[in-house]
């Protein structure tokens, strides 16, 4: 019995050695997997009488292999890596158990080796790639398996995307340390935002009629019997509103006074507001900008004392950009244009607090680099008409105009707020141009005798030549 066991062991060792030698002389060909996880092995070319195939198998996945010949038995060198089950003489199941490599020998009814499979069990790279493509679309990330490690290669736009890809890939390895993150994070994207706030206000006021109750004001406000007053000019030096006011009063002997005023007034007003703030920041970081000032507001405390709080006004801009994978820019914007106004001002503790006229917008938009979008707009029209006069008499056709005063006031407001975003990068200082380039201070002669605030620009003067023309010194992508 002992001698028989020794002979069997010797034959087994000889068979393994002979198989390994023949395997080294056999060309290995990858076998593609068909749909449904099946592998069809067609006609085999024999090399030294030993056909062989190499198969890559994901860990935890199975393959159904159809053979061109009948087999009776199978031998797996390392059953811990892969398991082979013979279902029928021409159909076998191959299951990847652990990352590694092994081989399997297939024997026919006579005990002859008819096929050898070189099995390589790898991490599930296909599922890892699909998960990353699904969860991180529009990214250029490749997953490669080497032994028990997953390598991530490619270029991403931010460190957050790189970290998210690493976390996803870690779900396909037994240890997170087996994920080798070789993703290259591109340079930080800088975003410049240009906001344009444009507003036009038009006001028209017309008044015509006879007022039997209002006295004439001004230099002729006190009139004696039979006096006559005429005022012609403007309401104030700043508004340039022309008016014509003719009036007089008559006091009969009975003592009753009748005051008559003929009013003719026409006022046209136009207000234009234009603000174009620009601001640059890195993707994902907030930025703020304010050009204006602060006005005091009295604040009462618990002990009755009044303190002063400062509130900003002017042109304000705040935004946070995020450069997305597609190259578009997501913007959260807050912009405001405010100015002090006496309309609505209050007086508190002998302190006059001015009011503010405000144009404000806050929103979130997405646009490509160089694209513009209007985030807010307003078109408003107001019309107010009024007739004031003597009851009953003012309703008489034609003659009623002598007993009434008619006024019409119209106002129109048109406002737009538009934004434009650019991807920018810094340049050399000599490539930038500022409003001060080439400016020459005025001499005493130019200032006092010619009325010039600055010197004359000379054509051949040595000034900084900039490759970028315009008020914004950036290279736009």
Global shape: elongated
Which stretches of 5+ consecutive residues score pLDDT under 50?
1-49, 214-258
Number of strands: 24
Strand content: over 45%
Helical content (DSSP H or I, runs of 4+): 10-25%
What structural category characterises the helix and strand content?
mainly beta
Q: What's the pLDDT, averaged over the residues?
A: 74
Individual helix count: 4
- N-to-C SSE string, H for helix and E for strand: HEEEEEEEEHEEHEEEEEEEEEEEEEHE
- Sheet having the most strands: 8 strands, antiparallel
Tell me the Rg in angstroms. 45 Å
Distance between the termini: 85 Å
What does this entry look like structurally?
It is a single chain. The longest helix is centred in the first third of the chain and has 23 residues, at 2-24. Strand 9 and strand 10 form a beta hairpin. Strands 13, 14, 15, 16, 17, 22, 23 and 24 form an eight-stranded antiparallel beta sheet that branches. By secondary structure, the protein is mainly beta. Residues 1-49 and 214-258 have low confidence and may be disordered. Helix content is 11%, strand content 51%. It has helices at 2-24, 125-135, 159-170, 444-448; strands at residues 38-40, 52-58, 62-66, 73-76, 82-88, 91-96, 100-107, 113-122, 140-146, 149-156, 179-181, 184-185, 190-211, 228-234, 242-250, 258-275, 278-282, 287-300, 306-323, 329-348, 351-367, 372-389, 404-425, 475-476. It has four helices and 24 strands.
